[in-house]
Write a structure and sequence with these properties.
Blueprint: E1 2-6, E2 9-12, H1 19-36, H2 38-41, H3 50-62, H4 74-88, H5 91-105, H6 112-124, H7 129-145, E3 154-161, E4 166-173, H8 180-193, H9 199-204, E5 205-209
Parallel strand pairs: 4-5
Antiparallel strand pairs: 1-2, 3-4
Helix pairs in contact: 1-3, 3-5, 4-5, 5-6, 7-8
């Protein structure tokens, strides 16, 4: 990925001897974009590199007072990423984005309570976003293989518990006109295909089609 502070300056990551040096330079360069080209800056939230996304979130949070006239546009873009992270299962990133949105807007986000609960849970059980996202991505792949449009599926995510344990409950609500036996087979397929997902994650996170 290219490191850019304006259209005339781009530094490829390969120019740096270490990844740490690249990220350090990124931390110094991004505040310039926040002030002079925030809509270009916000594209860094789409990076496929998790560490780069976190640097971008932290930078925007730290320098949000530089947004000026763009402060009305950026929250909408951040909120789009909030729901993308929620649906993808990137719960640590979700919490950081909600904190950022609240700082920019001065409002309380509707997901903050659930995000706080789930963040505390994933920290306690040492989940990382790559693990939880991989599990949910597997479910999404199975849905697509069965001709289920993910955009038509509501995702219900909560922290559930009984007398002895707690778990993240991720329900993919398929359209009600889908046959029950098809949904049942999709759940069986998910269980059979989840061997590469760590047992620890599968123990404390239930992903299911409903």
């Amino acid at each position: 990925m290219m490191l850019e502070t304006d259209k005339n300056w781009a530094i490829p990551q390969s120019d740096f001897k270490t990844r740490e040096a690249y990220l350090s330079q990124l931390e110094r360069a991004l505040p310039v974009l926040v002030k002079h080209s925030p809509l270009q800056f916000i594209q860094w939230l789409d990076s496929t590199d998790e560490q780069v996304r976190f640097v971008a979130i932290e930078t925007l949070s730290q320098f949000s007072d530089l947004l000026g006239d763009n402060s009305s546009t950026i929250p909408e873009i951040v909120e789009k990423h909030i729901y993308q992270c929620r649906n993808a299962g990137r719960f640590r990133e979700l919490y950081q984005l909600i904190q950022l949105w609240q700082k920019i807007t001065g409002q309380t986000h509707e997901l903050i309570h659930d995000a706080n609960e789930i963040l505390a849970f994933v920290v306690r059980h040492a989940f990382n976003d790559n693990e939880t996202e991989a599990y949910i991505s597997l479910a999404f792949t199975i849905a697509e293989q069965n001709a289920i449009e993910l955009s038509s599926c509501h995702k219900k995510i909560s922290l559930s518990n009984d007398e002895s344990s707690s778990w993240i409950d991720y329900q993919i609500m398929v359209p009600c006109d889908e046959p029950l036996d098809k949904v049942f087979k999709m759940n069986l397929h998910l269980v059979d295909s989840a061997g590469d997902i760590s047992k620890h994650v599968r123990q404390y996170m239930i992903v299911m089609f409903r």
